[in-house]
């Protein structure tokens, strides 16, 4: 069992004014044969990263005999020393990054007493797994579930699919997980060894990954805990979320780990959900994710499933660069009666929703029933942390049904087959976009339906080649405004017609926007398509008082234009809300619009959508 002296079971705050003792160093190609002498000259040792993450002449290095955290001035002096070596083209340090688990709200570890009764089949928590089969237990809405049992009856249980849990480790000795554990596809990037077992704490803080794993692959009918959504899938444990700080290299190594073996990466963490943070993946992690979708699964693309965030109405998940990435499937959650969970963030990059907790004020405020540390079970897992693994489990069922699905096919299928059901939120009404798709700013295209997803996956033909059209880029000199005086900008586009990157049918839209403002939390940004669909790229965040950094070419993403035709006028409206009494100012500096999609229409349209898709 792992223990780590000096850590308190919580992430320590990342110290300001410090950098890590990890450096990326790129050599001049002609001096690659002198690598060993250069390492010796500067007292450096090589840190391992996945093959292909760095170029042939680029290394992740650590200076021997130095502490893990260096004062910024000390690290900068050392980089200046490296820069004077004629053999080095460039070097930069790894920052210490703050990354938080989602859904961990002070729950303490305890065995679940209800695990001893309430049998349904042979798994003691079956009756509590309302997200798989909702019969109205715990005051839920009967039938409001993931529609999984229908898929099991057809024989699809996730066999042949491997799901990686990017988290704080997995209790792979748990009797409800061990039969489905894949040691050859697992690794501990926090401890740099092949044993990704959670570090012990007295309060069970490192139970997060074990709980997520059980939702996906807990063994069926063995009389232990419950059953996983894809109970014959394999679980890979990638421990990377339990150290005093995160680095770009650890994230990149985790997301690029064994991409030909691992099909789905499930991540229930991200930048701090405090309503103030604007953060996302750095250079190496972006490269790992780009390589994953382009090269993973033998070219079909790694599938990254991400929890959208637990910042509630005070945050916006479009300012989380992991959840809002085009390469990830951002998953939000609903409670067991279809209402909004108090921690749900909303944003335009959410693809779909699953479930995470019981109805507030119900007889039993049920969480998600799953495995827990040291062979125990729990019914207290919650947050969008619980929602993302459910989505990963359902996607595993679809991949078993059709292993040829690409990462984009999976997103298409989720857009096509997710359902509104009884999901509702008073702040965000359901809308229909120009292609006939029903969407919601909180729930995406609806709750995932395993039955429909698998049914359409069996008939699916791969989507046409993906294209990307840069519509335009605009630098702005005099665009200062105050509250009540919004700024409107527009591009008129032919969507790169006649060129090799022509886009006619939309998948993702990116708006890169730079803004300086006296209070970033007052910003509201909307974008309207040529087919008159308006998407909220950013909503005000009342806790964000930033007046210095603003937004610097931040890549806002929307999936809400999916399927629309892209030609015509695109409009962006930037405004300041009246959240504070003091009059605020803002200045738009730059914006750029990029549309991703296909030139040709998708050849396969599910039968229930055929009357909705507009030409």
Annotated CATH architecture of the largest domain: 3-Layer(aba) Sandwich
The largest beta-sheet arranges its strands as 9-10-8-11-13-14-15
Number of domains: 3
- First-last Cα distance: 59 Å
Helix content: 10-25%
The CATH homology group name of the largest domain: Peptidase S8/S53 domain
CATH C-level label of the largest domain: Alpha Beta
Residue-averaged pLDDT, rounded?
89
**Model regions low in confidence, pLDDT < 50 over at least 5 residues:** 1-13, 105-121, 607-615
**Helix-strand makeup class:** alpha+beta
Shape: globular
Looking at the structure, the CATH topology of the largest domain is: Rossmann fold
Q: Given the structure, what is the number of helices?
A: 9
- Main sheet summary: 7 strands, parallel
The number of E-state strands comes to 28
